[in-house]
Every structure is written in structure tokens, then in C-alpha cells.
Design goal:
Elements (H helix, E strand, L loop, with lengths): L1 H29 L1 E12 L5 E2 L7 E6 L4 E7 L13 H9 L1 E11 L2 E9 L8 E8 L3 E6 L2 E2 L6 E10 L2
Antiparallel strand pairs: 1-2, 1-3, 1-10, 3-4, 4-5, 5-6, 6-7, 7-8, 8-10, 9-10
């Protein structure tokens, strides 16, 4: 009987310890500065893939050791305004071709939870984004939970690939 209890204790402790190591490993592995490599959305029902920021988007995401994050991403076809101060139409086009947000994050296992505090899209403020992570150390892939597309209104998942800068 003692042998069974001891074996059960060792197995349970190993599982708990392994989960803690995995969670700490994934949390530690995203800390740093990341360059946006690709951004796409995939319609949940039809599977249609859209690259809302074009073939070669740009942007940067930073995850600090203290649990803060900031991210911005820009379309590859952004046009500079004709003058130093953009017209209303130019300003609207520039805003439509980017997104930016910041807030607090936490990692549980390989799930990233971002509580958005400030965003270029006001309706995102106060929401929590859940992103499933995969990494090979140099590249980080984040696949969101389904959400309504701002463009089509359909359920989509976003897939973003970041490359580590530092």
C-alpha cells in the first residue's frame, strides 16, 4: 500500500513539476523583441486565407519579463502622405493599414493571454486575446482563438509569425 501511495505521489509530482517547467519555459521563451514576419487571417468555416497587411508586413512586438507587452503591425503597401501633415483621407488610409496595442500578458503552458489596455482599435480595450504559441527559439507563431473579422464580420483566426530580434 505504501509503495502504491509513494508511486502515485512521484507520478503526480512529476506531472506538476513538468507542467511548471513547460509554463516557465514558454513564458521565458517569448520575452524579448520580435519583428512581424507574416500576418494572415483564416476564415473558420470556409478556410479562406487573407493577408490583411499584405505579403511583407512590418512591425514590432515586445514582451517584457515583468508581464507588459506592446505590439504594432503595418501593411506592406502603406503610402506616405503627400505633405508633412496628412489629409483626412490620407490619415484614414494610414490608420486602416495598421494596428497597435499594449497591455499585460501572461503565459499558461503554450497559451498567451493578452489583456489589452490601449489599442488603435478602441473596442479592443479591456478585452483579452488568447493566442496559442509555437516556437523554435528564433521564430514564434501565434494562432488566435476565433474572433469576428473587422473587415468581413466572419469568424476568423489570425496567424502571426514573429522573428526574434533580441
Amino acid at each position: 500500500m505504501i509503495k502504491c501511495v509513494l508511486t502515485a505521489f512521484i507520478v503526480c509530482s512529476s506531472i506538476l513539476f513538468t507542467d511548471q517547467v513547460l509554463a516557465q519555459g514558454s513564458s521565458q521563451s517569448i520575452i524579448g523583441v520580435w519583428k512581424v514576419a507574416t500576418v494572415e487571417t483564416r476564415e473558420v468555416v470556409a478556410g479562406k486565407v487573407v493577408k490583411p497587411f499584405g505579403e511583407t508586413p512590418s512591425g514590432t512586438f515586445v514582451f517584457t519579463a515583468g508581464g507588459q507587452m506592446i505590439g504594432m503591425q503595418y501593411a506592406s503597401n502603406r503610402k506616405a502622405p503627400a505633405a508633412a501633415n496628412p489629409t483626412e483621407a490620407e490619415r484614414a488610409a494610414l490608420h486602416a493599414s495598421m494596428s497597435a496595442y499594449s497591455g499585460r500578458y501572461r503565459v499558461e503552458g503554450w497559451k498567451l493571454f493578452i489583456t489589452i489596455e490601449e489599442s488603435s482599435i478602441q473596442s479592443w480595450n479591456g478585452t483579452v486575446r488568447v493566442i496559442n504559441l509555437e516556437t523554435d527559439g528564433k521564430r514564434l507563431t501565434g494562432t488566435s482563438e476565433p474572433f469576428k473579422s473587422l473587415i468581413t464580420g466572419l469568424d476568423v483566426v489570425a496567424v502571426v509569425i514573429w522573428e526574434r530580434i533580441e
